[in-house]
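Figure-free illustration: sequence to structure, shown twice.
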Amino acid sequence: MLISLTVGKVDAGVAVLLTEDKRLLLLQLLCMSLLNPTNTIQIEFPSILLPPSITSGSIVDITVSRNLDSEAAAQKSFQSLQSSILSTYGQQSPSPPVIRCRNATQTSVVLEWDPIALATAELRSLSLYRNDSKAGNIPKPKEMTSTKMSGLAVDTEYNFQLVLRTSAGVYSSEKLTVRTHKMTDLSGITVTPGMMAPPLRESLSGAIDRIGAKIAENVRIDTTHFVCMEGRGREWEKAVEMNIPVVRPEWVEGCEREGRIVGVRGYYLNADPKLRQ
């Protein structure tokens, strides 16, 4: 469609154009608005597109037509973008955490879970709940896959749940029910042996087997006691750093003799033997 317009006035940023029936057409760079709701039409039009030599009385021709090729290209580009967004963000979503009990004792529980799966979402937080109350946020949730809950009551049932908050929503694990052990249940004890003579080490291993406890060659999150005769070595330092009780082998013998877990106070390396049970 071809339209002929007569230039009525040329001002800074504004061209006043007249149609043959003397209707006023304002073409302006700044914004589109109606200056006169009767006959005056104002549209946004870059003045740089007008011929540079126009003056009042000049006639300009404006051709308006539908560009089907450009429409098709734009539609194809848009569909490609939509497909890319769908394949990147729409086909995968974060997975709910899966929580497990790694070990339980009379007063503690070690929990572990698979590495969190975020897909393309951003991590907000990973929180641990105990009996439906928030126990705290997991530090470094992209790296940590376990935690230890201490200070629990003996022979008591607890519910634990992980809640993953992401930019794509909130995902909760199934609730995990764990019961702490009775004083006579020694299966939760995990001993890491330290410096001691080989015969004593062999005797310690036998006692641990008899009470149903476990041995871990290296200190880890579920190590409950570090047993040694001398306080030195890298594993001993790690145990001290993690506040794991460092006791003599006689502590395991005391548990076996009493048929229950005994206190560690009298079995520290420098403790008075009179304090032993």
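We now fold a second protein in the same way, so the two outputs can be compared directly.
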Amino acid sequence: MAGQLQRSQRDSRWPHQPAHASSPAFHVVAPSIPGFAFSPAPRKPGWGARETGHAFHALMQQLNYTKYVIQGGDLGAFVLQFMAADNPDAVVSVLSNFWIIPPNATDLQRSSENLTTADENAHIATLNYFSTQLAGYFFIQDSKPLQLAIGMTDSPVGFAMWIYSLMAESVDHYEWTPERIITWSMMYYIQGPYGGMRFYKEIRREVWPHFP
């Protein structure tokens, strides 16, 4: 989900400290991507990261925020990129915890010649491990989301294990109790698995062509 961190510009003091210590310095608006959690899933193809960004910006306008800061990760990070590019007069700043820069041909050539730094080697190794060992869920969801969703919708337990298998390998130092597994899975299951899974196909359409 994309968490949007917003600061109100309703009074002239912004972005300075509020007049009273007990007054909020900013307001938080945290919408979920359509198809996830409590946001209804799109009813037709073509709703991806850019369309979600348009919807989130429209929401902020409706709430009377003319300037705001955005924050997000994972799929939300792709939404942020489009929001910032499409609404430069409204988006004051962007905080992404999922800013991936894939190595290009020059980087890989330098790596093969042992010319890369330790940090570069770690980055390349991490991305390589993810793409070869952990990214299977992404490739099936961005290519056959409907077929996968039919099976997952029919088996809530199977879907819970699908979410758990991904998150347990991707999140460090987090205790996965049965209650937490059920809670995480339910947030994906409320709208039905298909809406969230199809979003990966829309991400491939919008974002992947621009990657080197």
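Summary for the second example: The beta strands are 4-5, 28-29, 68-72, 91-96.
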